[in-house]
Amino acid sequence: MTDELLMIPGPTNVPAAVLEALSRPSMFHRGEQFARCLQACTAGLKQVFQTRNEVLILTASGTGGVEAAIVNCLSPGDRVVAIRSGKFGERMAEIADRYGADVTTIDIEPGKAADPDQVREVVADVQPRALLFVQNETSTGVCQDVEQIAAAGRQYGALSIVDAVSGMGGIPVKTDAWGLDVVVAGSQKAFMLPPGLAFVAASDAAWQAAEEARMPRYYFDLPAARTALDKGQTPYTPNVNMFAALQAALDLMLAEGMENVYARHAMLGRACRAGIAALGLELLADPHYASDVVTAVKSPQQLDSTRLVAAVRARHNILISGGQGELKGRIFRIGHLGSCQLDDLVVTLQAVATELNELGYCCDPQEATAAAYAAA
Ligand code: PLP
């Protein structure tokens, strides 16, 4: 097996210290060692989430965390407003609908972010129990204004349920200061871990809602998870090896310093956008809301981006992503999150430029490199 450089928006490259932690013998999940690890992981996550509340760790992918957030706050028939910013905004609406919520959607054009004033108008009209939205819409490379959107909902008493699966840990989310009610993150993104853990922070209002919520839940019962956490456990057998790895990853993040981690991601976002512009390519995202963890680029000259993605992988061992849903073939996406460094990004830009030339789009790889270094 050849090692590939993962420049997709997750899973991301796993650092050696995290791989080492993963390879340790499994811990007994009802023992002291696991309890200490769980305590350390929760303490670290609270720093990353910027919250005083507990952050629950679920053995599930990010979608499981989002589902947990929804079913623990809502009852069938509850009105919710869901912002469909792209594939992951759509998924939030689908989950709520599947469990019987009365869903009103706000549809956002691909590449745009929700306008908090528009959100306020819809929320004022619908008076929903909750407002569901994505922080970093991975499918379009857009980072939304979480603080203002949540504030628009709160003005009319709506709980904010935020999918921060791909942005948390790379782009600051001030859970408490911004008054967010439920915030969900996933392990395989900025946390530099394999997929398989979801992290869920909940406010006092969300815990109150969980007492009243009647959507069915069993595995994803958050009050049960909180009760178990008080005993240093999880309700069911967790992926113990991933918890050891999470502790190692959090150690790395906190040793770098969260402000430095955010600054590195901001630098990577700038460098990527500059490199792309130097190749004469256009971003999908409104530049004002362009994400610092994933850059979505319009494919030039009707070129099918799946061909570019395949060529970059085949000839350079670098994975980038294509588009999802209606954007399939029309965009490509470069993920620059987690352990990503400037050099990883530069080799990726060079590989993209080289293969664009092979596919008939004329551009200069060296210009992309120079622009990326200059913007960094
Ligand atoms: N939400 C966002 C913003 C994502 O980027 C993803 C995955 O890419 C998910 C949710 C779903 O996460 P998972 O695939 O881990 O279930």
Kindly describe this structure.
With 376 residues, this protein is an alpha/beta fold. It has two domains: 16-255, Type I PLP-dependent aspartate aminotransferase-like (Major domain) (Aspartate Aminotransferase, domain 2, 3-Layer(aba) Sandwich); 257-375, Aspartate Aminotransferase, domain 1. Helix content is 44%, strand content 15%. The chain has 13 helices and 13 strands. The chain has a seven-stranded mixed beta sheet with strand order 2-10-9-8-5-3-4, with helices on both faces. α4 links the parallel β3 (79-84) and β4. The longest helix is centred in the C-terminal third of the chain and has 21 residues, at 258-278. The radius of gyration is 21 Å and the shape is globular. The protein starts with a strand and ends with a helix. It binds pyridoxal-5'-phosphate (PLP). Pyridoxal-5'-phosphate (PLP) is lined by residues 10, 61-63, 88, 134, 136, 138, 163, 165-166, 186, 195.
